[in-house]
């Protein structure tokens, strides 16, 4: 069909975490511009399987842009050239015929490559385990007016909670900093009454885990905000800093004390 | 109290200390420039200012504060720079492009501009604080005239050029650092983003322009 794309792909191939990786070059032909980027990779994998070769491993799940599983460095852009778009929601119409596309996994010391384009993002889970929760059962949806929440706070919390934990912020940051992720997770609780009782302890513990995992620190290049598929703002990093300072001077430390 | 010290050494803690000491050093630059501009007022005016500073009992205390500020600023920033470099891991990207459309030169060069400024600072203190330079050697102790020995340093072409270079490098360093410090302190507000950036650049250009004018003036006039 006319208008379809013939592409050259330079894909990172790596057998496992211990092996050294390298780029392999593949050609794919007759790619519909209506395909998503992952569907294009599916075509590549079918082609590889037909040739008796090992398909390229990549993370994906919902393919609706809401789960945060997918994430590729496409021509040097996290999740490709579009703003507020996950890799699965990127469409091939954004590329032109004859183009060479470089596809790499997220690169960060805390995100080791497991295979090909798949990285281990459990560092994020460990940060959440350290404090990204509220320690009471909230039960069913409560009566709306029993805990008043100002509307702007609802909006701020909701915008922060939009984070899908894909890791594009880390991938696109020149320091591989996770401060946008941690900022979003701290913010979504810090502005709501349910999150306030544990706010000091939460931020101290999550930042300690973030440092332990080996993520870098923010140098305000704002690249994370541009790469975030969920539109999480860097103002969440400023709130993280504020919450941290508040915890330093008003809190009782990262562990629960007798007074708590 | 152990947790408090540990928390101060965390990435955010270090950023806050770098920012606070940076703002303190910005304040010093402003005061230093205000004093140094007395040079343009001639010998009598500058010597009167120098005598006032030398006789002031607060001066040695402020000097110790400055030394501590510089030490903390450099130590924290170097620690962060090393952490940031190692965070990418062993293999870097074959291709990286900015989605925001910036090249981030300002933030990338912070550590390098900072190190050149540190070398300048050591030379500057050696030449001007301890007056170990050329004909002016040992002059300008308490109560002695300072104007001529200061001009001697500033009109020495290699020294003057290095002073000018350091001041030029301080422009991006201060411009990025000034607004970055407010972000690190959590004081940034989306509404004032543009304003903060303008103030940063305005401050850096004005203060450094002032400092650069002094060796230029000395080279032309003497």
Find the count of extended strands of chain A (DSSP E, 2+ residues): 7
- Structure classification of chain A: alpha+beta
* Secondary structure tally, helices of chain B: 9
Order of helices and strands of chain A: EEHEEEEEHHHHHHH
Q: State mean pLDDT of chain A (0 to 100 scale).
A: 95
Number of helices of chain A: 8
Could you characterize what this model shows?
The complex is a heterodimer of chains A (260) and B (222). Chain A has helices at residues 37-50, 122-131, 151-161, 168-172, 179-190, 199-213, 223-227, 235-250, and strands at 5-13, 22-31, 73-74, 77-78, 100-104, 113-115, 118-119. With 260 residues, chain A is of the alpha+beta class. Chain A has two domains: 5-114, Ubiquitin-like (UB roll); 122-137 and 146-250, Orthogonal Bundle (Fumarate Reductase Iron-sulfur Protein, Chain B, domain 2), CATH 1.10.1060. Chain A starts with a strand and ends in a 10-residue tail after the last helix. The longest helix of chain B is centred in the N-terminal third of the chain and has 30 residues, at 58-87. Chain B has a single domain, classed as Fumarate reductase/succinate dehydrogenase, transmembrane subunit (3 helical TM bundles of succinate and fumarate reductases, Up-down Bundle), CATH 1.20.1300.10. Chains A and B meet through strand 4, helix 6, helix 7 and helix 8 of A and helix 1, helix 2, helix 4 and helix 8 of B.
């Amino acid at each position: 069909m006319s208008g379809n794309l013939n592409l050259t792909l330079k894909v990172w191939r790596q057998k496992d975490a211990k092996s050294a990786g390298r780029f392999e070059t593949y050609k794919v032909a007759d790619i519909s511009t209506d395909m998503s980027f992952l569907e294009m990779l599916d075509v590549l994998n079918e082609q590889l399987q037909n040739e008796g070769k090992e398909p390229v491993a990549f993370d994906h799940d919902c393919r609706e842009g809401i789960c945060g599983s997918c994430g590729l460095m496409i021509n040097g852009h996290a999740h490709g050239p579009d703003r507020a778009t996950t890799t699965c929601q990127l469409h091939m119409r954004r590329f032109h015929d004859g183009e060479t596309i470089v596809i790499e996994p997220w690169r960060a010391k805390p995100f080791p490559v497991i295979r090909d384009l798949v990285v281990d993002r459990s560092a994020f889970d460990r940060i959440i385990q350290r404090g990204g929760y509220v320690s009471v059962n909230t039960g069913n949806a409560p009566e709306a007016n029993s805990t008043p929440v100002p509307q702007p706070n609802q909006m701020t919390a909701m915008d922060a909670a939009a984070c899908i934990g894909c890791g594009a912020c880390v991938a696109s940051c020149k320091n591989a900093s996770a401060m946008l992720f941690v900022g979003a997770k701290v913010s979504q609780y810090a502005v709501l009454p349910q999150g306030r009782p544990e706010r000091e302890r939460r931020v101290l513990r999550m930042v300690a885990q973030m440092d332990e995992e080996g993520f870098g620190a923010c140098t305000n290049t704002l690249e994370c905000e541009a790469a975030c598929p969920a539109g999480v703002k860097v103002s969440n990093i400023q709130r993280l800093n504020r919450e941290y300072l508040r915890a330093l001077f008003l809190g009782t430390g990262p562990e629960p004390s007798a007074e708590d | 109290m152990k947790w408090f010290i540990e928390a101060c050494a965390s990435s955010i803690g270090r950023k806050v200390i770098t920012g606070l000491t940076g703002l303190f050093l910005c304040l010093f630059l402003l005061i230093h420039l205000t004093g140094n501009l007395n040079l343009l007022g001639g010998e009598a005016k500058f010597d009167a200012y120098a005598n006032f500073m030398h006789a002031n009992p607060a001066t040695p205390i402020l000097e110790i504060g400055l030394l501590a500020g510089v030490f903390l600023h450099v130590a924290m920033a170097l620690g962060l720079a090393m952490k940031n470099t190692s965070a990418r891991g062993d293999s870097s990207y074959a291709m990286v492009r900015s989605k925001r459309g910036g090249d981030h030169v300002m933030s990338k060069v912070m550590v390098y501009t900072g190190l050149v400024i540190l070398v300048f600072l050591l030379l500057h203190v050696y030449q001007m604080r301890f007056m170990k330079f050329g004909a002016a050697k040992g002059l300008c102790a308490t109560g002695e005239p300072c104007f001529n020995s200061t001009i001697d340093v500033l009109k020495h072409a290699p020294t003057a050029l290095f002073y000018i270079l350091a001041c030029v490098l301080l422009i991006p360093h201060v411009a990025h650092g000034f607004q970055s410090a407010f972000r690190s302190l959590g004081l940034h507000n989306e509404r004032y983003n543009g304003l903060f950036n303008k103030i940063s650049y305005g401050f850096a250009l004005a203060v450094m322009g002032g400092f650069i004018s002094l060796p230029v003036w000395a080279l032309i006039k003497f």
